[in-house]
Design a protein that fits this description.
The protein is an alpha+beta fold and 296 residues long. It has five helices and 23 strands. The protein has two domains: 2-104, Roll (SH3 type barrels), CATH 2.30.30.40; 168-294, Alpha-Beta Complex (endopeptidase fold (from Nostoc punctiforme)), CATH 3.90.1720.10. Strands 1, 2, 3, 6, 7, 8 and 9 form a seven-stranded antiparallel β-sheet that branches. The longest helix has 23 residues, at 2-24. The chain is globular and about 55 Å long.
Length: 296
């Protein structure tokens, strides 16, 4: 009799435990990984200079974007070695290696952080160890620095900084932020001077003026106002380019009505006309112009 009671209690406890799991989590199987999908609010913050954001929870998976030091995202799911998050700065989703993140319950989502590191590379300290960080790292607010203090301490030391709240996106300022990227190698998913793709380049330059761009070129093309003709373009307008199927696949920053700075092979300045980009070194037409947009 007592044995039957224990069995009943054990079965009841197991049923209750499973109910709680399914009530508060979604149990998911993906590529032989078991992980829990969070329904609670928690945030992951990048604790290394640059961290890959991948399509799947595996090291061999495609890098679709990157997190920079002190950038955060809402945790969506967890696997053994990876965390899936939605980036605060652009809403992009991907998997980041758990060991490159710290997890906190609270992180103030600042839609327009006001200060970023401005040197091509700055030497700072992460948890008292020196680190070389690329241009454009957000400087944590006092509130977020306090929230993170138990797990992540960033000493910006004498790093050069840029106050985006006070910066005006005139031609001189746009060039000041864009030109240091010259000769940065093209890297699919990249967002730093260590390697950058076309839309990562435009996104990073525009962040210095508190103009939040989405992550991919085709998404950025949904923002801003249309400029009717190339001859009406001004420095800072974005030019978008499509492929043979009509899909927008490339973007660059216009310096004037005949020059563009963009990431293609490397960050470079090329010629542009009404038909598209012409490589300044080879004279070969490389990209077909689709549309021009203005954001300020």
């Amino acid at each position: 009799m007592y044995f039957e009671i224990y069995l009943d209690l054990g079965a009841w406890f197991l049923e209750f435990l499973l109910f709680m799991i399914y009530e508060f989590y979604d149990l998911v199987i993906c590529d032989h990984y078991f992980y829990l999908k969070h329904l609670s609010m928690a945030y992951a913050v990048c604790k290394v200079p640059v961290a890959p954001l991948r399509a799947e929870p595996a090291h061999k998976s495609e890098m679709i974007s990157q997190l920079l030091l002190a950038e955060a995202g809402l945790i969506l799911e967890e696997a053994k070695d990876f965390i899936k998050l939605q980036s605060n700065h652009d809403g992009y989703e991907g998997w980041c290696q758990r060991s490159q993140l710290v997890v906190v319950d609270t992180f103030i989502k600042e839609t327009t952080p006001q200060t970023y590191t401005a040197g091509w590379v700055d030497i700072i300290a992460i948890n008292n160890a020196p680190a070389h960080v690329p241009m454009g790292i957000p400087v944590l607010s006092e509130a977020n620095a306090k929230e993170l203090s138990a797990v992540l301490k960033i000493d910006y030391r004498n790093a050069a900084t840029w106050n985006a709240a006070q910066a005006k996106p005139d031609a001189a300022a746009i060039k000041e932020r864009a030109v240091p990227f010259l000769n940065t190698p093209y890297l699919w998913g990249g967002r730093s001077v260590f390697g950058i793709d076309c839309s990562g380049f435009t996104q990073m330059v525009f962040r210095f003026f508190n103009i939040p761009l989405l992550r991919d070129a085709y998404l950025q093309a949904t923002q801003g106002e249309v400029v009717g003709f190339l001859q009406e373009a001004r420095c800072g307008d974005l030019a978008f380019f499509d492929n043979a199927e009509g899909r927008i696949t490339h973007v660059g920053i216009l310096l004037n009505d005949h020059e563009i700075i963009h990431s293609s092979g490397n960050v470079r300045i090329d010629k542009i006309d009404n038909a598209g980009i012409v490589n300044a070194e080879t004279g070969v037409r490389t990209h077909q112009l689709r549309i021009i947009k203005r954001y300020f």
